[in-house]
């Protein structure tokens, strides 16, 4: 099955640093989503993007829906220790009456 | 505020044993999903259901079965467990197919030895 290419795979951060990660696909999506997974927990939705070019913020997090609809970016500003975890992107494609959600391989943030 | 509840959280199985992972949601969501998460591989869809009595295969259904007799419950059954089924399993649900937000359970870590 298709999976999204997410980069970087992992990164070490220092408190106060800005963090950037991205997700790319060979297919276009109607919706892009960013989830965060804390250790021992299930993923939790951070940001949802519904239109190409859309830029949305949630506190220190900012995500963008790429113009080509094949990529998305997530930025975290002024990182703090609780930002540690795994970040997943997910793209949703709607064709006719069916929709399919595809997850990226994750970016692991460590201190 | 229970959301999606999975049991058990941890389980060790011997090769060839069978077991059922339970999943219950109290949000009256029509759509429910089972994913497995392997290290560095993201989430892969095993089975999903669009409502009570309706289930369908995802990307990696082999070795698993599901049922959906009620809106709330979506158990995942492993028959003849194999080491390749060692993974973390997540159940998720959402109200409609067209809104992206999935609500996930806390996961069930299964080891097959």
How are the SSEs ordered, and which strands pair?
The complex is a heterodimer of chains A (111) and B (113).
Chain A: E1 5-7, E2 10-12, E3 19-24, E4 31-37, E5 44-49, E6 55-58, E7 61-65, E8 71-76, E9 85-95, E10 98-103, E11 107-110
Parallel strand pairs in A: 2-11
Antiparallel strand pairs in A: 1-3, 3-8, 4-5, 4-9, 6-7, 7-8, 9-10, 9-11
Chain B: E1 4-7, E2 10-13, E3 19-25, E4 31-37, E5 43-51, E6 54-57, E7 64-66, E8 76-78, E9 87-94, E10 103-104, E11 108-112
Parallel strand pairs in B: 2-11
Antiparallel strand pairs in B: 1-3, 3-8, 4-5, 4-9, 5-6, 7-8, 9-10, 9-11
Question: How would you characterize the overall build of this protein?
Answer:
The complex is a heterodimer of chains A (111) and B (113). Chain A has 111 residues and is mainly β. Chain A has strands at residues 5-7, 10-12, 19-24, 31-37, 44-49, 55-58, 61-65, 71-76, 85-95, 98-103, 107-110. Chain A is built from no helices and 11 strands. In chain A, strand 4 and strand 5 form a beta hairpin. Chain B has 113 residues and is mostly beta strands. Chain B has no helices and 11 strands. In chain B, strands 2, 4, 5, 6, 9, 10 and 11 form a 7-stranded mixed β-sheet that branches. The model of chain B has no long low-confidence stretch (mean pLDDT 93). The interface between A and B is medium-sized, with 25 and 22 residues.
Low-pLDDT residue spans of chain A:
none
SSE pattern of chain A: EEEEEEEEEEE
Mean pLDDT of chain A: 91
Put simply, the count of helices of chain A is 0
Measured by DSSP, the beta-strand proportion of chain A falls in over 45%
Unreliable residue runs of chain B: none
Q: How many beta-strand segments of chain A?
A: 11
Oligomeric composition of the shown chains = heterodimer
Let me know the largest β-sheet of chain A: 6 strands, mixed
Question: Largest interface, by Cβ-Cβ below 8 angstroms: which chains and how many residues each?
Answer: A-B, 25 and 22 residues
Indicate the percent of residues in helices of chain A: under 10%
Distance between the termini of chain A: 32 Å
Helix/strand class of chain A: mainly beta
How large is the radius of gyration of chain A? 14 Å
Q: Which geometry of chain B do the CA atoms define? A: globular
Question: What fraction strand of chain B?
Answer: over 45%
Reported for the largest beta sheet of chain B, the result is:
7 strands, mixed
**What is the H-and-E element order of chain B?**
EEEEEEEEEEE
Structural class of chain B: mainly beta
Count the strands of chain B?
A: 11
Q: What Rg of chain B is obtained from the alpha carbons, in whole angstroms?
A: 13 Å
